[in-house]
Cell division topological specificity factor
Amino acid sequence: MSFLTSLFGRKTSAPIARDRLQILLAHERAGEGQSELISKLQEEILEVIKRHISVDQDKVQIKMDRGAGVSMLEIDIEVPEATKPAAKAD
Amino acid sequence: MSFLTSLFGRKTSAPIARDRLQILLAHERAGEGQSELISKLQEEILEVIKRHISVDQDKVQIKMDRGAGVSMLEIDIEVPEATKPAAKAD
């Protein structure tokens, strides 16, 4: 899991321990077209996440990189402490 | 982008060039609880994707890894050629 640690671990600035949710999307295109798929998914995936955790818009970082053959989207969310439910035994 | 190439490029078996959509979710937990967030998101994110591309269930690979402090989900989708719309000029 070290590749993820290095990939995802570079943006933490606050010394306080917080939960983070990070999403990486990559769309590899063999041919032409559909380069906008990732941008379509971005908003809807954020909506899905907001159904489960309360997201402070200031704590969301979005980075998009559209290459010729690969489009990538990185979403980094700092999860507010208050939205974490108590640990359940299920 | 070479880290993603190596991270994501290991499952291609077909010699035919195809589109692929790959999603990586990582939930870093500072404290206890909410280890099930990633599994909750899995189904709903797949629903979002299916709204935009037709997904053959056989072409979806899902891998989940729940560690003590980090839960990870990897979704790998091979996009059928037929679902790719013609390139538009928008």
About this structure: The mean pLDDT of chain B is 78. Residues 37-52 of chain B form the longest helix (16 residues). Helices of chain B lie at 2-8, 37-52. Chain B touches chain A through 42 residues (CB under 8 Å).
